[in-house]
């Protein structure tokens, strides 16, 4: 059966120009709230993808032993080197010719050790001065044996011996110092083994690095041959494989290069750069004569720079601090991340040597000498940051004359302040698409300074707020230990910044929880959470951090339990801030998850009872968090060591969860309820199996007359009996032995004395076996037992209109049903969860996302509460962020809406008796049951018994068609409306099974083709769904589900084939209240008063019209009743009059009644259907005081508020149906603004 669709429109007058519209009309839309637009409706409920990078070094180590090999042979030059005169002579800043050769050698060795101790004071040092090969073997072997798996450093100074050979040999001495003895790098590798680091300070040092890699390959080949020959050797007896490729080498120059001999430089310039970088950097800077502020600085004055290297308040200490920041920055911006981590974060001594190696490269390259390293580093001598170093040196040295003369005091360098400013500039334009900020390592160094720490933390927080990629970048540069140490600070001005930074870190990388607990940092956040004087947004961050501390972390759970976290948190679950409540509850749920001791401690505090009221909290996320916490509470009890108290508590929790389902409109909460109830099913598995068996027995008894003894009975997903199928007689011999689990003894069940093993249940599904389950063998379950209620609750949730909820519930019930046909023992240990939701992970993901764009989470980053993250204008809960596509789209849409309303207003005020014109006519495949205009776009939604179709009535194009339900037998659609019609509209559809669904993306921009019919419905997605009235059953003769949507109050009135009217608060997604209709018939129409939100009217199938007032109690809410219709009332709506609103109603008999809410009798009666034809449909225009009636005789009449006929529509105007009579009128509607358009 098909149906016709027609749109009739009155001839339109001139449209007003935009200049005639006022700004107030545009702002009207900004003031209207939005429904179903929260992140829980638009996001996929899942956690952050595993984006945490491996910034931690699994093989973190330290250099514990250092071998200092000095082959100087003071006073004797090597035979292959011709030195210039004058020549560089200083070794470790000592002139060897200023004392006897032996004393000079000893002094140089002592000085070299001191220089290394500056970087690694706890290492074991061994000096070998002018050694033999045997002495080197002894020293290196001993150091390796003592170091075990830690790193050993081998420093070789070969200034007094020949250059290394092409065969990979360095030179040492014989015992009498009469010959140079070659020492193979191959042998040295064998003694040093790995891990090791080598420093070669000699000419032609690059040749050693090349030979080192060749010998490393040779060792690897020999090891593989050895392993092939000893396959039968036990693993414990095998030598560990060599790993010489991972050994580090630093060489003073490349192959065929000679060290510089400038007399103004030390002879061991490479060693000087590695161990005394500031001293050599100052000398080289002065020698370059590049100083602009003090052009006549001397080397002698440089040696007089005051201060200590480890005191950042002095000139020398600040230079060392700046040097560390600059070299770290150069390395971080030049090296791959893994190389940077290995060389600059794995070992403190290695990091120091490589930072200083960058300086060595810069200085030595100026003398045509190229230092070599393994692993190889890219050239960095021309990096722009060296210019910043030169400027810092220049500024410091410019103060030196005045300081030495006592005329000036030292002024700190502006270096760090300028770098922070550069970082701030990057932040103002930074994003993931741009290259990372090169100043990030400098920010790390600035955290050490109290002067710049506050600003550095603020900028760091803004950087972390850019997203997970920024957090990973900051962790890779080494920010973690610094912010961990700052938790020891008691400075209140740092608190909001540290809270924000730690929130970002833990939101991306939860593994930091272990470090936090190990250092006691969790106490910092616990103190903030318990301090009521702290702003709620900061306490929310503290609650989140604590929840991450206990997130699947038993050590963290134990740490917080020692300070009675759960007891203290229970006193804060009713805080005003919704996000704070949410994360306190989540933290509680995580704190007792899988922690039996914490559960019993919470029971002593009646924790579960204190959480029950939160199941009716005004915020769906808080309710979901509560359901999650109660689920982990049940789970923590487990199946072992059950007792009567534990069972009763878990039963009470489960009943509370089931009882709130019918009042819950949020799928987010219902999913968490199912997730929580799964643990009841798993813990009391045997009991629920008996429930399913008894259900089979009851249905078998009902259908016993229609089933033969040899018919197989199976359970369907809904718990009912499936269509019988024949099976062999052999199967009828199976028997079912039902046992009981220990937890059932306190549940009031009577068990068979002939049952088998209590944990072993053999199950069969034949009729003969079911017939054998007499009252003596089948447990007798009282009708009102808790398990019956829980089972019925789960069974009803199988039919939940939201697919994810019904799927989860079906998994639980199917699990029980499948156990009936399986054989096995019921495990005493809880299994893995049957269903998971990802709710907590989704909540945590919000903290990893930029806070500037998150409406629910904002924090004042600056101590003076001046927020610079974004400029926003908050209007009615909707963020107006300028310079965004969303803002301009919304602004255009609201301007368009104002124009439509202004035009309609002008049209209503202008007298016009123009004839109706048909502007759209099409044939629907099925008879339309409900039709609705979009208030502003040219869209028409048409519902029939199979689904919903959306048309573009201006272009006569069908845009999309989709089914309202996934079930084979879809419920009949009886109500429909557009939600958020002034914005990005959603489609509200109600069906006669009591379900309500909200759809989005039913109109896709790319599918609006002018020449084609669009059949693609893949873009349509379900936003939300719930059972408005769960008590309603599908029917074809009654009114079904009747809905009325109020955009202003965000409330939904729901009624129909029931004796009540239910009010839903869509913003909170909760049932507000139920109002009894007082009628034994169904409700056919319900509408709120557009001028007074507290009043609503309902029309009934018995002809009565009833007025209700929400401000009264449910029993006294019906304030007026009119019983003037003798037939079914088709519709009753409000019509605007001067000073208020009256009612107009129409019945199937064709009589129209006008009623004043203040008068118990109607004020006007109009007969619209002559000759007793009757009326089939009715609609009232909300703005123009017109109403239309569909008459049985296949025509439409349009009336004004006095009842006079303004127009009659009986025939089509054009097209292929020119002159033909319109079809029978099944439904009518007016456009909410335009005048007038009627549908049939």
UniProtKB/TrEMBL annotation:
Residues 1-28, 699-757 are annotated as: Disordered. It comes from the Eukaryota. GO terms for biological process: cellular response to amino acid stimulus; cellular response to starvation; positive regulation of cell growth; regulation of autophagy; TORC1 signaling. SMART domains: Raptor_N, WD40. GO terms for molecular function: protein-macromolecule adaptor activity. Gene3D superfamilies: Leucine-rich Repeat Variant (1.25.10.10), YVTN repeat-like/Quinoprotein amine dehydrogenase (2.130.10.10). Residues 60-213 form the Raptor N-terminal CASPase-like domain. Keywords: Repeat, WD repeat. It holds the Pfam family Raptor_N. GO terms for cellular component: cytoplasm; TORC1 complex. InterPro entries: ARM-like, ARM-type_fold, HEAT, Raptor, Raptor_N, WD40/YVTN_repeat-like_dom_sf, WD40_repeat_dom_sf, WD40_rpt. Residues 704-723, 730-756 have a biased composition (Polar residues). Belongs to the WD repeat RAPTOR family. This is Raptor N-terminal CASPase-like domain-containing protein. It comes from Daphnia pulex.
């Amino acid at each position: 059966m098909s149906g016709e669709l027609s749109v009739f429109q009155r001839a339109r007058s001139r449209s007003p120009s935009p200049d005639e519209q006022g700004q107030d009309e545009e702002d009207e839309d900004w003031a209207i709230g939005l429904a179903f637009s929260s992140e829980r409706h638009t996001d996929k409920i899942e956690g952050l993808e595993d984006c945490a990078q491996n910034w931690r070094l699994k093989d973190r180590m330290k250099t514990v032993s250092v071998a200092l090999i000095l082959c100087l042979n003071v006073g004797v030059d090597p035979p292959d080197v011709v030195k210039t005169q004058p020549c560089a002579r200083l070794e470790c800043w000592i002139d060897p010719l200023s004392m006897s050769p032996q004393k000079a050698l000893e002094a140089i060795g002592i000085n070299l050790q001191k220089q290394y101790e500056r970087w690694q004071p706890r290492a074991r040092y061994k000096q070998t001065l002018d050694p033999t090969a045997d002495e080197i073997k002894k020293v290196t072997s001993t150091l390796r044996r003592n170091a075990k798996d830690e790193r050993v450093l081998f420093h070789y100074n070969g200034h007094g011996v020949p250059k290394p050979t092409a065969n990979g040999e360095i030179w040492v001495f014989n015992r009498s110092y009469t010959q140079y003895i070659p020492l193979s790098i191959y042998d040295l590798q064998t003694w040093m083994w790995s891990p090791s680091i080598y420093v070669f300070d000699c000419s032609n040092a690059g040749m050693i690095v090349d030979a080192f890699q060749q010998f490393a390959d040779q060792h690897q080949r020999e090891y593989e041959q050895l392993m092939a020959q000893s396959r039968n050797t036990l693993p414990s007896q095998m030598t560990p494989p060599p790993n010489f490729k991972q050994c580090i080498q630093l060489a003073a120059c490349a192959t065929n290069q000679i060290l510089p001999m400038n007399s103004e430089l030390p002879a061991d310039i490479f060693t000087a750069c590695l161990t005394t970088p500031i001293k050599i950097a100052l000398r080289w800077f002065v020698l370059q004569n590049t100083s602009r502020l003090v052009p006549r600085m001397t080397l002698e004055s440089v040696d007089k720079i005051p201060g200590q290297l480890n005191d950042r308040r002095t000139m020398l200490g600040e230079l060392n601090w700046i040097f560390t920041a600059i070299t770290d920055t150069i390395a971080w911006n030049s090296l791959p991340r893994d190389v940077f981590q290995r060389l600059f974060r794995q070992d403190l001594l290695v990091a120091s040597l490589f930072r200083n190696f960058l300086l060595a490269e810069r200085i030595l390259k100026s003398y045509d000498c190229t230092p070599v390293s393994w692993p190889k580093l890219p050239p960095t001598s021309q990096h722009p940051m060296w210019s910043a170093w030169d400027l810092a040196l220049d500024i410091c040295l410019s103060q030196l004359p005045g300081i030495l003369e006592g005329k000036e005091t030292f002024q700190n360098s502006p270096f760090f302040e300028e770098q922070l400013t550069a970082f701030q500039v990057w932040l103002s334009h930074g994003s993931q698409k741009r290259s990372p900020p090169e100043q990030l390592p400098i920010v790390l160094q600035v955290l050490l300074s109290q002067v710049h720490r506050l600003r550095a933390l603020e900028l760091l927080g803004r950087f972390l707020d850019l997203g997970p990629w920024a957090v990973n970048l900051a962790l890779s540069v080494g920010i973690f230990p610094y912010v961990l140490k700052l938790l020891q600070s008691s400075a209140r001005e740092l608190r909001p910044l540290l809270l924000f930074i730690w929130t970002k870190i833990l939101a991306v990388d939860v593994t930091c929880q272990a470090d936090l607990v190990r250092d006691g940092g969790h106490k910092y956040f616990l103190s903030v959470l318990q301090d009521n004087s702290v702003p709620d947004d900061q306490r929310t961050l503290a609650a989140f951090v604590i929840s991450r501390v206990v997130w699947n972390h038993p050590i963290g759970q134990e740490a917080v339990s020692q300070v009675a976290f759960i007891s203290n948190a229970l006193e804060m679950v009713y805080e005003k801030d919704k996000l704070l409540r949410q994360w306190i509850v989540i933290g509680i749920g995580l704190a007792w998850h899988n922690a039996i001791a914490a559960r019993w401690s919470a029971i002593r505090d009646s924790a579960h009872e204190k959480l029950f009221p939160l199941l009716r909290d005004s915020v769906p996320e808080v309710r979901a968090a509560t359901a999650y916490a109660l689920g982990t509470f049940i789970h923590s009890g487990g199946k072992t060591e059950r007792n009567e108290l534990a069972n009763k508590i878990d039963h009470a929790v489960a009943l509370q969860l089931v009882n709130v389902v019918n009042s819950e409109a949020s799928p987010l909460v219902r999913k968490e309820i199912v997730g929580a109830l799964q643990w009841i099913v798993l813990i009391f598995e045997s009991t629920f199996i008996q429930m399913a068996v008894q259900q089979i027995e009851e249905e078998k008894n009902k259908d016993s007359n229609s089933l033969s003894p040899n018919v197989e009975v199976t359970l369907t997903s809904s718990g009912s009996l499936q269509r019988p199928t024949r099976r062999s007689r052999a199967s009828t011999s199976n028997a079912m032995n039902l046992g009981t689990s220990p937890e059932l003894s306190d549940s009031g069940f009577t068990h068979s004395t002939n049952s088998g093993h209590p944990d072993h249940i053999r199950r069969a599904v034949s009729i003969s076996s079911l017939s054998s389950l007499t009252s003596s063998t089948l447990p007798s379950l009282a009708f009102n037992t808790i398990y019956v209620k829980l089972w019925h609750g789960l069974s009803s949730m199988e039919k939940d209109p939201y697919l994810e909820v019904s799927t989860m519930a079906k998994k639980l019930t199917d699990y029980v049903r499948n156990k009936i046909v399986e054989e096995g023992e019921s495990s005493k240990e809880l299994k893995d969860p049957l269903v998971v939701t990802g709710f907590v992970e989704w909540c945590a993901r919000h903290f990893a996302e930029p806070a500037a764009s998150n409406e629910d989470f904002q924090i004042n980053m600056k101590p003076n509460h001046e927020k610079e993250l974004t400029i926003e204008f908050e209007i009615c809960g909707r963020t107006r962020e300028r310079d965004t596509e969303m803002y301009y789209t919304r602004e255009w849409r609201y301007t368009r809406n104002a124009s439509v309303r202004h035009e309609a207003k002008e049209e209503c005020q202008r007298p016009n008796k123009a004839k109706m014109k048909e502007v759209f006519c099409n044939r629907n495949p099925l008879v339309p049951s409900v039709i609705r205009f979009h208030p502003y776009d040219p869209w028409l939604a048409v519902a029939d018994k199979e689904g919903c179709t959306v048309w573009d009535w201006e272009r006569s194009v069908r845009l999309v068609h989709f089914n309202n339900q996934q079930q084979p037998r879809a419920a009949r659609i009886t109500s429909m409306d557009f939600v958020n019609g002034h914005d990005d509209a959603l489609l509200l559809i109600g069906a006669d099974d009591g379900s309500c669904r909200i759809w989005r993306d039913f109109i896709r921009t790319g599918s609006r083709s002018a020449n084609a019919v669009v059949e693609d419905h893949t873009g349509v997605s379900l936003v939300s769904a719930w059972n408005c009235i769960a008590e309603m059953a599908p029917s074809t003769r009654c009114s079904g589900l009747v809905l009325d949507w109020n955009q202003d109050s965000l409330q939904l009135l729901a009624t129909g084939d029931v004796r009540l009217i239910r009010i839903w608060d869509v913003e909170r997604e909760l049932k507000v209240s139920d109002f009894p209709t007082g009628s034994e018939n169904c409700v056919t129409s319900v509408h709120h008063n557009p001028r007074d939100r507290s009043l609503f009217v309902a029309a009934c199938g018995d002809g009565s019209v009833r007025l209700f007032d929400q401000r009264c109690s449910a029993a006294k809410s019906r304030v007026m009743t009119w019983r003037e219709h003798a037939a079914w009332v088709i519709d009753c709506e409000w019509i605007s009059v001067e000073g208020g609103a009256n009612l107009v109603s129409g019945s199937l008999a064709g009589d129209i009644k006008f009623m004043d809410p203040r008068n118990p009798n109607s004020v006007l009666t109009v007969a619209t259907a002559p000759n007793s034809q009757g009326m089939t449909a009715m609609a009232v225009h909300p703005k123009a005081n017109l109403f239309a009636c569909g008459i049985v005789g296949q025509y439409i009449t349009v009336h004004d508020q006095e009842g006079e006929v303004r127009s009659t529509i009986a025939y089509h105007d054009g097209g292929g149906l020119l002159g033909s009579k319109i079809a029978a009128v099944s439904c009518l509607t007016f456009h909410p603004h335009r005048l007038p358009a009627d549908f049939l």
